[in-house]
Amino acid sequence: MKSLGFPDPQKVIDRLGDDFVEALVDAVDGAREDYADLKAWRPEWAPSYSSRFIANFAHERIWARLIREIDGAPGIHIRDEEPVREILSGTAFVTRVKRHHPGDRISAYPTTGSLAHWSNRALTLEGLESISLAAGYYWDEETRDIGAPVLSLREEKDKPVWGITLHRDAAQPTAIQWAPVEPGLPEFDLSQIAIEDEEEGLA
Questions:
Q1: Which of 4, 26, 113, 125 has the most CB atoms less than 10 A away?
Q2: Taking 80 as the threshold, does the pLDDT of residue 123 lie above it?
């Protein structure tokens, strides 16, 4: 047995592969366009949308777009068994789609299974390490916008090791660039804990 180490962002991106990372960026950008289309279709409905509704809509669209692009790719196994949705990349990573808040905080109902999933401190058998990743977007509570694509690795659910934003290089559209997220204090909205993310893998 040994303690699981934390690879840096570039190593994770390299192991996930260009196809996966590009599909993630496209899925988030596409979900943002889908939400804009929804608001344009029925603009009078938009003011009544709750943050939870927007988060669930974003999750559904990101998941659908991402799976459409990576399903059948070598080494990819998709688990879509409500309430758990996750993508296994070989034996290295287990990725769930998550909305990210300031401080790289994510929402997840604190079940035993959820806490175990996000604990990357657990001792694992030599050669069988699997790292849990959160992939999704940054959420702006004030504007209620689907923000930049993001990828994060955490030691525990509320203890991020690092977070990065992802975007296409304007000079080379086929190349994905990343930038570290500036450290910030997490903002805790306790009113949301009881009602958000009651299903594992959502939002």
A1: 26
A2: no
In this prediction the pTM is 0.84
Confidence category of residue 29, pLDDT binned at 50, 70, 90? very high
Distance CA 41, CA 44 (A): 9
Encoded tokens for 163 = 């977070």
Other beta carbons less than 10 A from residue 121's beta carbon: 12
Q: Residue 4: name the closest of 118, 155, 116, 117 by CA.
A: 155
| d(C-alpha 176, C-alpha 93), whole Å | 19
Q: Would you state the pLDDT for residue 122?
A: 56
Residue with tokens 């299903």: 199
Kindly tell me the number of DSSP H helices and DSSP E strands found in the chain.
4, 8
